[in-house]
User: Which sequence fits this backbone?
């Protein structure tokens, strides 16, 4: 609660902000390792590891694109299929490709 008019309210709010900024500035000058909330838990990676990781990510992205295209093609064939046995076989292929696609997408998420 702030007693007084709007000007008094603004004065106290600005004072609280300045006090908070002052405390933050003083806490930054203390030597030592940076707080964990700023490091975000990521480790430093060498350039060769970065290149290898980028290659792996690109490979997984190509695999996802290929599987997605294959699944779309199979689904398009399914739309024109009239034979029930062939349609069932096509459905099983779509399910298998979908499972491979899910695995590849999980792998991509882990790498990113």
Assistant:
């Amino acid at each position: 609660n702030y007693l007084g008019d709007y000007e008094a309210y603004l004065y106290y709010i600005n004072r609280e902000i300045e006090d908070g900024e002052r405390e933050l500035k003083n806490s930054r000058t203390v030597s030592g390792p940076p707080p964990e909330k700023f490091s975000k838990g990521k480790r430093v990676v060498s350039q060769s590891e970065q290149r290898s990781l980028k290659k792996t990510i690109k490979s997984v992205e190509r695999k996802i694109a290929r599987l997605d295209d294959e699944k779309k093609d199979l689904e398009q064939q399914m739309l024109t299929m009239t034979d029930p046995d062939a349609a069932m076989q096509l459905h099983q292929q779509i399910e298998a490709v979908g499972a491979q696609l899910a695995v590849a997408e999980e792998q991509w998420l882990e790498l990113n």
